[in-house]
Specification:
With 243 residues, the protein is of the alpha/beta class. It is built from ten helices and nine strands. Strand 6, helix 6 and strand 7 form a beta-alpha-beta unit. Helix 2 runs antiparallel to helix 8 and helix 8 runs antiparallel to helix 9.
């Protein structure tokens, strides 16, 4: 393994990345959903709705929602009657999710503090594994993907919603200008934290392009790996099956 990994545009040691990402999400946990609305103009809600429709959760299924923190994906999944385990490495994010679930009276959820790279769940335990806007924050994606494969049942499905690089001419340049110039300022205004939101934008830029990440999912053992781009690839749904 390399001696350094990316933390935004900076290369740091693996332990330092884990610690610094943890600090970022502790800082933003209380305003995370507000900032998602501000940064995406509310479009993240539509992306998440579409993502869950692709997962097709069913009553009685066991689903692991990794990096599920504040519960946005889990609440949608639970409407099907599935049993959803919401996992996140960050206890502050989980606490926000628990409070939101109690207010919304969402049933069928369990909460578990987990590192995506070292899950303590048994082999072949889940019908589906979901991760939305979280895979780019793990230190080693190959470990997280291997763990996703391990905990899925045979015939289980993997779904990942993540930012990527839009291929639409003109839109890419406009989005780059918006994200680098305005998002950190929004973070300072709405969450009192400019640096954390600068990292979140930089982490998107360092994430592999759609086809490269598709290859990583295949290398973990998944078959029929597909990519569904949105906004020209600014956001993409990646999926695969375990056999």
């Amino acid at each position: 393994m390399n001696d350094t990994v990316s933390f935004g545009y900076t290369d740091v040691s693996p332990d330092e990345k884990t610690a610094r990402v943890g600090e970022v999400f502790r800082n933003v946990a209380g305003r995370y959903d507000l900032m998602n609305d501000a940064m995406s103009g509310g479009m993240h809600r539509l992306w998440k709705d579409r993502f869950v429709r692709r997962v097709k959760p069913r009553a009685g299924e066991a689903i692991l929602d990794m990096a599920g923190g504040t519960g946005d994906i889990a609440f949608r999944l639970a409407k099907s009657g599935a049993s959803v385990t919401v996992s996140d490495i960050n206890p502050a994010m989980l606490e926000v999710g628990r409070e939101r679930a109690a207010k919304k009276q969402v049933k069928g959820l369990s909460w578990s503090e987990q590192n995506a790279e070292e899950l303590n769940f048994s082999d072949n335990g889940f019908d589906a594994y979901t991760i939305a806007f979280g895979i780019r924050n793990v230190t080693y994606r190959d470990k997280a993907l291997a763990e996703a494969y391990r905990v899925l049942k045979r015939g289980g499905r993997f779904f990942c919603l993540e930012f990527s690089t839009t291929l639409w001419p003109g839109f890419k340049e406009a989005y780059d200008l918006y994200s680098h110039r305005l998002v950190p300022g929004l973070g300072k205004l709405l969450a009192g934290d400019e640096d954390s939101y600068r990292y979140l934008i930089e982490s998107i830029r360092r994430f592999p392009r759609m086809e490269a990440f598709r290859s990583e999912i295949g290398a973990a053992g998944f078959i029929q790996v597909r990519v569904e781009p949105m906004l020209g690839g600014l956001v993409a749904i990646h999926s695969g099956w375990k056999i």
